Structures are given as C-alpha cells and as structure tokens.
Amino acid sequence: MAAATKWSETAMLVIDMQKEFVDTAMSSIALPAGEAILPAVREAVAVAGERGIFVIWVVREHDPAGRDVELFRRRFYSGGKGPAVKGSKGAELADGLVIKDEDYKLVKPRFSSFFATNLDSVLKTTGIKNLVVVGVQTPNCIRQTVFDAVALDYEKVTLITDATAAANSEIHLGES
C-alpha cells in the first residue's frame, strides 16, 4: 500500500500552538511545557507532511472585546487586548510552525476543536476516519477534542504524548 493511500484516512490536529500559549518570552500565560514540545510538534508535522496526512491547524483568534470567549475569560479582554486576539502577535503560530497550502486552518471558539466549528464536516467529507492530536493544553483543549472525536466515532484517535503538554507533567500524564 502506497504511503499516500495508507495515510489518506488520517488527519493531524495541531491544537493551539500559538505564541500566546507557548512562547514564554512574549506571553505571561504561555506554558514552559508548551514551549518545550515545539521541536516534537515540528517533527510530528514534518512526518505528517511526508506521509500525506492532512494537517489541520486549530487555533484561537478572539474578538478584541472578548465577545466570543468563554464567559469566565471575558475579564481578560479590555481595550482591545487579551489572549490570542485576532491579528495580534500572540495569535500567530509559534516559531517554526507554518500552515502550508495543502493544510487547513480552523478557528475554534471553545476548548473542543469540534464545538461550534465545521471540523467534523471537513474531516468526514475528506474521508478522514483517524486522528492524530498534538498541541496544548492536555486537560482542556486536547482532552475535550479527543473526547468529542471518540463520541463522533472516529475509528482511531492517537495522542502523541511527547508533542502535547499541560501546565505540569502530573496533569499531562493523568497522575493527579
């Protein structure tokens, strides 16, 4: 079976690998663990590209007034400033990560990549049955996306633990 055929039913979701969340030099809310997984995420994306796996970049890009964020986060948005505001430096992908022409960019409004997005439709109309997940943050966006993928009957949902991260390793590895 050719590589393109073998992997044609698989997509990789790269979740929230934006400067706001993983670049500790520019953002006070960035995770050091998120920054630490950047090389592994870059490698996973490169391998996906070599294998012809459909790469989907799942990002947050919020309204400057915070009208589209969770109610509990709206207090962080005032005067056009807040985490991952559309067009801001923080909303950009982390250094070394690039959306290619054959990739897909999806903006999500909540933790799950499936909630209030067209992700399920994009995947199913593309013939995707299996998902590989990388990114941040394990107890929030990663977990919600994986749970929803399982609930939506994707056949195989694989999490690359070395290319995902949380605020601390105990939470990431489910030890607490």
Gross morphology: globular
Give the name of the CATH superfamily: Isochorismatase-like
Annotation field: number of helices: 7
Please give the CATH class. Alpha Beta
Q: Spans with pLDDT under 50 lasting ≥5 residues?
A: none
Structural class determined from secondary elements: alpha/beta
- Strand arrangement, major sheet: 3-2-1-4-5
Biggest sheet features: 5 strands, parallel
What Rg do the Cα atoms give? 16 Å
**What's the helical proportion of residues?**
25-40%
* CATH topology name: Rossmann fold
Task: Give the termini separation.
Answer: 42 Å
> What's the pLDDT, averaged over the residues?
94
Protein name: Isochorismatase-like domain-containing protein
Family: Belongs to the isochorismatase family.
Domain Isochorismatase-like: 10-172
Organism: Paspalum notatum var. saurae
